[in-house]
Protein 1
Amino acid sequence: MEGSSGQVSKATNWQSALQGAVRSLDELLSLLQLRFKDVPDCDPGSSFPLLVPREYVARIRLRDPRDPLLLQVLPLGLENSFSSGFLSDPVGDLSSEAAPGLLHKYPSRVLMIATGMCAVHCRYCFRRHFPYDEKPKSIESWQPALRAIAEDSSVEEVILSGGDPLSLGNAKLQQLVQAIDSIPHARRLRFHTRFPLMIPSRIDSGFLELLRQTRLATLMVWHINHANEIDEHVAVAVGELRRAGVQLLNQSVLLRGINDSLDSQCKLSLRLVDIGILPYYLHQLDRVEGAAHFECSVDTGLSLVAAMRERLPGYAVPRFVREIPGESSKTLLS
Ligand SMILES: *Cc1c(COP(=O)(O)O)cnc(C)c1O
Ligand code: SF4
């Protein structure tokens, strides 16, 4: 299919949206009508470069250096300061590899680092120092991981993560999904992604079709931190996924100055529920080098979820958790 067919033009849409994403601090600030002196600590030369799609920029308030969306993507000089206890691999990813690119930490489920690419660079990302270049990229190089899953009948769920698994095109994703689908003891397929939040047109007909074709139960965990991140285009993408039978959950990270108030947590939860996503986890920040300035105390999180429980229906209150290396699940804090 070529030319004006809906499928092709949509597929090129999200890829060109990614190609056209904002990558320079100058441009980001000028789009937001900010001057360098409004954000004195910003760092144009960060080794984890700025990346933010224009669809997301459009949801950031103009002339507000404290905007909760801007703070998630703006590189700061603070990221270069040393903080004890903040590590390059805070959750022990590299010591839990069962095969190249395959993390097996918890019973019955494995996580594939499907790609290192993302639609956005989140400044608090716990995999910001992950050695993606050394990980498998082609379906051939995934064979050891797929074999390891096939040989372990205790594995019922495969999680596609990254990076962002939806940075892969539909053809590549379909190869992976089909390979997992053909492992008899695999029952569930889960995506962890921020891509359709950034670029909602990623939920195109090709992607929906590959979800409809698999016999696996499908889940998608969105990573949404603030209600302002959700606009009507995001809500439409969510609706498409629900009609394709995908279970939708959300996890967020508790971030200082971004979502650490009761009002912002309640708004996020209710907005999620209203568009059809259930709150799943609220994560205590993983202590990755460069992200110390985002950390809130565990007590802050505990009192937030306690107060949310008094205000919201039970299903709208996320479980407040942290990841402790070596444990057999996330650790429930509340
Ligand atoms: C977080 C994580 C999972 C998923 O844990 P759930 O509690 O099932 O959401 C699976 N594998 C790894 C390596 C993880 O870090
Ligand atoms: S989308 Fe996820 S993996 Fe990518 S930078 Fe953001 S938090 Fe990290």
Protein 2
Amino acid sequence: MAESFRSSTSPCQTSSRALAEAMQRHLFFSQAKSPSLATRHDHYRCLALAVRDRLLHNWVDTAETYTQAQVRTAVYLSAEYLLGPHLDNNLVNLGLRQEAEQACHELGLDLEELIREEPEPGLGNGGLGRLAACFQESMATLELPAIGYGIRYEFGIFRQQITTQGQQESTDSWLAQGNPWEVIRPEWSYPVTIGNHTVIGVAYDTPILGYGVRTTNTLRLWAASAPEALDFASFNAGDYTKAVLHKMQSETLSKVLYPNDEPEQGKRLRLSQQIFFVSCSLQDMFRILRGQGLPAREFHRKFAVQLNDTHPAIAVAELMRLLLDEHRLDWDTAWGVTTASLSYTNHTLLPEALETWGIDLFQQLLPRQLEIIYEINARFLRMARIRYPGQPDKLARLSLIEEGPHRKVRMANLAVVGCHHTNGVAELHSELLRRHVLADFAELWPDRFTNVTNGVTPRRWMAVANPALANLLDDVIGSHWRRDLTHLQALGKHTGDDAFLQRWRGVRDASKQRLVQHIHQTQGILLDHSSLFDVQVKRIHEYKRQHLAALHVVERYLRLRNGEDLPPRTVIFGGKAAPGYAMAKLIIRLIVGIAEIVNMDPAMAGRLRVVFVPNFSVSLGQLIYPAVDLSEQISTAGKEASGTGNMKMALNGALTIGTLDGANIEIRDQVGADNFFLFGHTAEQIHEFDRMGYHPMPWIEKDPIVREVIELIGSGHFSEGDRDLFHPLLANLTSHDPFKVMADIGDYRQAQNHVDACWQDPSRWARMSVANTMGCGFFSSDRSIQEYAERIWKVAPVPVEATTRSL
Ligand SMILES: *Cc1c(COP(=O)(O)O)cnc(C)c1O
């Protein structure tokens, strides 16, 4: 591992002894405790603070280098960052993992236990937020001058408990015990006016460490606070409670992360959150620009700003407002600067997930920005009318405003018009954007559309999550895969080597045993690590089709009860459903009901187990992804933009059963069709179903097994005799089946039978597993970021110089 490090990465030359002493010092000087009173959390904090001390030189030097060099900077605007715990990742990226283990040992502590003490910052819903986190880490590792901006939600994504009733939500107070990884910067705070209120955004900085380099970038998250000085001036003396109330209202802005797929309610606060963090971030960029003596009209030379979905798309109007009203540029210059600065990543093909905001709400909260949007639209449509004379339908589709009784602002249209590039996140997704979702824009501006296939960071998702695999790779192909994942190709020389395959299986088995132990300790269920681990962990959504996998489990249950001999399987589900998404919650309820019956049935012992792991998160992902034999990536073709869970599993040696959707297609291309279990209709065919009118009944009629499965569920077998509980789900599947579960279930069964056959030949499975890891080097987020930097941002690496400091 040491070989891929530059020798002077850790300027302190930290030894384990020095680290242990630093922890002891922090127990006294930071935690103010004697050893006899110290809790495990105290020890975690001491280690975190000792590690933080050791990254500060790099962090300060990075800021210094960027200031001195006046470098072009990539700016990532994202409403979500699903970071996961920092400690282990920072240890690995600093090259201090072994020292920390030794230091803890010297103090009679267990490093793994301390790592588990860190509450994870769950500031995202799922894939989109996790992508933002992987991208931050890759930008630092590639030594790119970059800054990430977002919101410091006091409560992240809700905690999920699973009872016999299904999902229960509670709040995630991740900050309750403090956060040793952030530094507050009250000197960098900005006012944002929303309606008649002004809120102040205060910066909280978190260091983002590159792997094996000095570069330590900043993630700057905004917390809302009230401008007290203003308040006291305007309130009557003595009306203290009113002043406090106003303070509380202001702070509400960054209180809580919105779960995905929630209905309309509470939208006012969400639009407020968007303008809040976008405006703070843009004002901060102007502060940096000013600090370097550059005028506002040079903004686009200094900053390349990426919008992660439409959540920050208000940046188009807000940047225009700042350039026009605050910096006094004329319209054409301001528009030139704006469109040269911004670029936009689209993340969804689901039409209902494209953001729009009612004009009335917009007018109330952001009147000036709405005025600017109207002006952008007027100029844009004037141009479009010349290009498309006599085509009012086309102009109506292009317009930034959706007309009708409830007029709305279309944020995706605003983003495309105001950005120099729009990209999708996998080849198929970008293709479908060009052909369907944004077809009119792609016709107008073909050169603005491009693809950047997503990736994941091999540091967190391999080196940190799967140390046993990392060690094996180091032994066999050397350690360079951590910074250039295409090195995994070198495994090709070893696929015929029996001793290597034996070690490979040992590594996989160890990961599965680690998960078995966790599930036993937390849920009291004992699993067989030698069975096939069949896993679907991701947000619960009908388009992801957890119900398809659940129906297949019921089918296996029936076949086993009929005396069929199937290889032992453990089916593991995990993922959160939006609290207001009834159908997704019912799917969880179904899985829990199935698990209860299957796991109690003596006839299933040693053959089938079903587990729903509660509160799926980054930490749990680190435990689960390496333990997967079969990765379920079974979304309706044309619905999953990319997926990144599919990449994490394949990189760790799982085989995929999947549809031709999102990045599955590219994974299959890379690992070879023989090493991928393909099934299902194509996006094209699904599109045809929708055009011609689809009905599930003919599919059900010709499939006696699926009829039996539906009848069994409908009979109350998995709901303590309650025949009504799953009715909404079954009625949906048999009458509309919007996500074409019934059209694909037969083919899914065939593919699953093929899985069983392959699993029964362990050395064949091991070779297929190696082929998956070996082929997936393309899916590093380093490669994604390199594409953004070269093709979209035009940002180049700037290595960080060490400063000599007497600290
Ligand atoms: C990777 C990841 C996701 C995204 O999973 P998909 O299978 O791509 O939907 C969601 N949540 C967490 C915690 C993740 O780590």
Protein 3
Amino acid sequence: MYVSDCISVNEKGHLTIGGADTVELAEKYGTPAYVFDENEIRNNLREFKKSIDENYGGNGLVVYASKAFCCKEMCRICAQEGTGIDVVSGGELYTALSVGFPTDRIVFHGNNKTHDELVMAVTNNVGRIIVDNVTELESLNEVAASQGKTVGIMLRIKPGIDAHTHDFIRTGQIDSKFGFALETGEAMAAVKEALKMPNIKLRGLHCHIGSQIFDLDPFELAATVMLDLFKDIKDQTGVELEELNLGGGFGIKYLKTDRPRPFADYMKKVAETVNSYSAKLGLKTPFILIEPGRSVVGAAGLTLYTVGAVKNIPDVRTYVSIDGGMGDNPRYALYQSHYELVCANKASEKRTETVTVAGKCCESGDLIQEWTHIQPVEPGDIIAVLSTGAYNYSMASNYNRIPRLPAVMVKDGESRVIIKRETYEQVAECDI
Ligand SMILES: *Cc1c(COP(=O)(O)O)cnc(C)c1O
């Protein structure tokens, strides 16, 4: 009925997540607040893991892209589920390290890691550093040498596939700040340089073709383009690389009309391509890494707000103001992302109204959704915005010095705080 299986309506007509009544959660923890369902998150991770087991005989690793939602509890959950974790900054790395995340399962991304971040990664024996450019390759080799270590790396390749166009295209993606270009020979040159470096162990290659992708073809095409490069490398250097990282980007449901393929389908089809194409090229199937972010947490989370003023402008529109906004969910302001909204305390009523839900920031563009269908709402009602688990908390800001929201984790109807609500003191803490 809703965009996620963990969302339902109880006998009081209240919206539930993971068996917990969202109206009661709003009372207990206050609003605005993010709420996540732990079972949904764990099930998603397990489904990706199962697909590696079934399609690659377990010869691979699921790496949760933590930028989608990074906090200590998410790192603990990934550690318990036996997945890896992908970090893109010293802050995300710090968070993973602070819960004792197994460092051999940490993957460090980023197109401009600072020297300090490289030192931090090498010092902590991060398993794979995804090297983005030659400058980084050289400084990483120096950092590793200075510590007398050999570091495992993968090179980020631009496979020349833009999955975001309507009919995805194979060229043109050379214009990206991420990674080494294939067409220009830059990628091959970097491979050869990495193979020569004494303190670098080139484990394989990485690509990530975009996000919220519903089609299969771009993933399959990316895999074949990457395997062609594996073959060229073998022919030119005699080295058969061991690992292929296919990135993330699997689409999720934001609206009921969205029709993402089930993960299992994706994985099966892409694995068929990887297995058969490797064989065709005379390569053994590499160790496969995948990096799902949004698809692990996106539909497992929602945001609860309390309605304040309702402003009906005749013949124009109705603005429903809530106690959060672009500070906790910048995605509509950034790229007009669609969401499903529900009045949590009237969830069994019909959605007869068309309204614009506005935040409390001093910015006309601070909207959560325009012209959205919802139950008749009045001041004091609770509005739930669904599928906000990914790229909401992680993109939150303190614009207007509004404290960041807490995150509540629900499991089998029980709830607990996993991120505390920020206080005014904390917002001003670094001020001198
Ligand atoms: C953002 C990102 C991911 C995760 O993407 P989703 O769309 O959230 O699955 C994976 N790998 C890399 C390198 C990324 O930048």
